[in-house]
Specification:
seven-stranded mixed beta sheet, 16% strand, SBP, 411 residues, Alpha-glucoside ABC transporter substrate-binding protein, alpha/beta, D-Maltodextrin-Binding Protein, domain 2, single chain, 2 domains, four-stranded mixed beta sheet
């Protein structure tokens, strides 16, 4: 009996915990190596599954009643839905202590207030990249709206960022959580400001932007890797609005990065606010070891290992100033804003919204980019308001709280 029991325990130790996440290629390899090194040999082993079709993969696994033990998602709206549906396990106290706002608000679910996810990797979004030495006075904007997963999000980032800077964190929060109409004049002004910034565009330019990936076209000099929009589009553009992650595309290129509020001079009353995004880990399996794994993934050792394994230009940003941060000049500057210079951080609004409304927002941006006529905008905002109202009937008390969307830099 002792031999059988010992054998069963050994089998249990060998059964790996599965982590499903969004990183592939070099990013996926760095995370997987960190995960492998995080295993101390005393308990369970870990295996990583990386995919660019994260939502579709997770939904399929849930429908097959075979969820991963841990999944890493960037959408607070999706995570909120899973928590309300009873799919998520609340975190351990140690992991909860690292659930810094605005990345991980506590939720009221079934009469209890708990934390269900914790940020592993974060990004700063309110940034403009440019060819070094190009003045900010008259930018020619690069736009690439195509994405393998969901096209249109580079445009929603623009609308969100403009609304945050023009109307402030309070209005932004009310809108992101479905408490403000899309037909509100301040929301409408964000769309029209975006169109005015981009200026008149030819049909060829519109088509090029709608079909060009957000990372630009392949560059033979980089082994087929992306060359970035600043070097991809014809005629040459000078400035690009994009999140901090794009720095890996421009590694070695002469580019500058500046806060986006400076490009709304005369319109931006809230230049201390920045939009952010994140990749959050949540426990889907009922194995207690999965909760322990998330606790370890959000800890100092995991972050130190991850930074050591990642290529210099792919070293992740973490939410607290005490965390290890990138060491390249661009990375250090961005980390300084993220963990110190910013007065307020607001989570990506479309990723706060329920998935159905987020997807409708992406589609509406593509339609508006092609046809920015005032009457067309009124139609699109009316349609989005209908989706918002329908979503509000389903979310109830489980939707993200207003107090959790924007917050000072934490940790």
């Amino acid at each position: 009996m002792l031999a059988v029991t010992a054998g069963a325990c050994a089998d249990d130790r060998r059964e790996p915990l599965v982590v499903l996440g969004p990183w592939t290629g070099d990013e996926g390899e760095a995370f997987e190596t960190m995960l492998r090194r995080l295993d101390d040999g005393a308990g369970r082993t870990y295996t990583y599954q990386g995919t660019r079709s994260l939502r579709e993969t997770l939904v399929a696994q849930l429908e097959a009643d075979a969820p991963p033990d841990v999944a890493i998602l960037n959408s607070v709206g999706e995570l909120t839905e899973y928590a309300r549906a009873g799919r998520l396990q609340p975190l351990t106290p140690a992991a909860t202590a690292r659930a810094y706002p605005p990345w991980a608000p506590a939720l009221d679910v079934d009469g209890a207030r708990r934390t269900y996810w914790v940020p592993l990797k974060v990004d700063l979004k309110s940034l403009v990249w440019s060819v070094r030495g190009r003045p900010a006075a008259s930018p020619r904007w690069c736009v690439g709206l195509a994405s393998q997963a969901t096209s249109g999000w580079p445009g929603t980032d623009w609308v969100e960022d403009i609304l945050l800077h023009q109307a402030g964190p309070d209005v932004y929060t009310e809108w992101a959580t479905g408490r403000l109409s899309w037909r509100d004049r301040r929301v409408r002004a964000a769309w029209t400001t975006w169109a005015a910034l981009l200026g008149d565009r030819s049909r060829a330019s519109l088509d090029q932007s709608l079909t060009t990936p957000y990372v630009g076209t392949p560059d033979p000099a980089k082994g087929g890797g992306p060359r970035g929009l600043l070097y991809s589009l014809t005629p040459r553009c000078t400035h690009e609005h994009q999140s901090a992650f794009i720095r890996y595309v421009y590694a070695g290129d002469p580019v500058d990065v500046r806060p986006s509020a400076g490009f709304l001079r005369g319109r931006a009353a809230h230049d201390g606010a920045y939009e952010v995004a994140g990749d959050m880990a949540a426990v889907f399996g009922d194995d207690p070891a999965a909760r322990t794994l998330v606790e370890r993934l959000s800890g100092a050792r995991a972050r130190t290992l991850w930074r050591a394994e990642a290529k210099r230009e792919l070293r992740p940003f973490f939410p607290a100033a005490t965390d290890p941060q990138p060491t390249d000049p661009t990375g250090r500057r961005i980390a300084g804003i993220l963990t110190g210079r910013a007065r307020t951080l607001c989570f990506d609004a479309s990723d706060v919204m329920p998935p159905g409304l987020r997807d409708a927002f992406h589609r509406a941006v593509l339609q508006y980019f092609r046809d920015p006529a005032p009457r067309r905008l009124d139609e699109l905002l009316g349609q989005l308001d209908t989706v918002r109202e329908d979503a509000a009937e389903d979310t109830g008390p489980g939707r993200p709280p207003s107090s959790g969307v924007c917050a000072p830099p934490g940790g």
